[in-house]
Amino acid sequence: MSHLETAMAILMQTFDKYATVEGNKCTLNKGELKTMMEAELPSFMKGAKNPDEVDKMMKALDYNGDAEVDFSEFVVFVAAMTCACHDRMPKK
């Protein structure tokens, strides 16, 4: 697989790993989202000054208002985080 195909596969595997822990196997609930962020985005979580950061993130990601994050909402989150990180990286 190409690098991009590998990255896409990893995104799908990561989402599924946390979504299948409890409840709906196709979405992340607040607890699953928090666990995923702590394990997969530790630098972001360390930098979060507010303990309610996961609540804010959940509200921001939950576009359809169902109190869960589906795969489409997750991909938008990863894309936004990637853009933010890319903007902070020094250009070659």
TrEMBL record:
PROSITE patterns: EF_HAND_2, S100_CABP
Pfam families, per the entry: S_100
Annotated InterPro entries: EF-hand-dom_pair (IPR011992), EF_hand_dom (IPR002048), S-100_dom (IPR034325), S100/CaBP7/8-like_CS (IPR001751), S100_Ca-bd_sub (IPR013787)
Keywords: Calcium, Metal-binding, Repeat
Cellular component terms per the entry's GO annotation: cytoplasm; extracellular exosome
Entries under SMART domains matching the protein: EFh, S_100
CDD domains in alphabetical order: S-100 (cd00213)
Gene Ontology biological process terms, A to Z: endothelial cell migration
Alphabetized GO MF terms: calcium ion binding; calcium-dependent protein binding; transition metal ion binding
Residues in EF-hand domain copies: 49-84
Protein name as catalogued: EF-hand domain-containing protein
Naturally occurring in which organism (per UniProt): Denticeps clupeoides
